[in-house]
Amino acid sequence: MRDYWDAFIMLFIVLDSVGNIPIFYTLTSNMGEEERKKVFAKSVLVASLLLLFFTLFGYSFFAYYNVTFTDFKIAGGILLLLLALEGLIGKVEAETLRNEDVAVVPMATPLLAGPGSIYVVMYLHEVYGLLPTLVSIALNTLIAYAILSGSDVIVSKVGKNTVIVLARIFSLLLAVLAVSMIRSGFEEALRVVLGRG
């Protein structure tokens, strides 16, 4: 049971469903409650499939395509930064981002199934085995859906105008997160280059 508990806690921390509430709500602010829940469900499902894929085939995939976590950080950071900039100038609307696009990118990846969570499930598989890792993914994604589906109740209490202000603030925070991911990726890439030199 200790293996199952440790695997669950590690992925729960990295997945950070609670921390994603304001960002996810901002990205779906133009949708109704039912539509938002469908998008949340799709994003959690896609994230689950991605985590399952990397649990089972992660090391083989990375080796075959010569992909590194550094590549994931840089690419994911750029995607988040572009979306954050659109949010800051008020261009994240239904006309520019279809719901299915938002559900997959950036909600499913890189916000939920990002470089950190992908690395964790691969690590859990190696350390604790397949079953504890699969249980951890299942429990954490179910919890993520429950938390995100209930986020509208929390956010609705603060009022529409406050949500608009918060949307800009969270877009700024998303931009900061994106820059942090890009910086971290380039720093890791630079260390690799200097190490080889």
Automatic annotation (TrEMBL):
InterPro entries: Multi_antbiot-R_MarC. GO terms for cellular component: plasma membrane. The chain crosses the membrane at residues 6-27, 39-62, 74-90, 102-124, 130-150, 162-182. The keyword 4Fe-4S does not apply. It is found in: Cell membrane. Keywords: Cell membrane, Membrane, Transmembrane, Transmembrane helix. The keyword tRNA processing does not apply. It is a multi-pass membrane protein. Belongs to the UPF0056 (MarC) family. This is UPF0056 membrane protein.
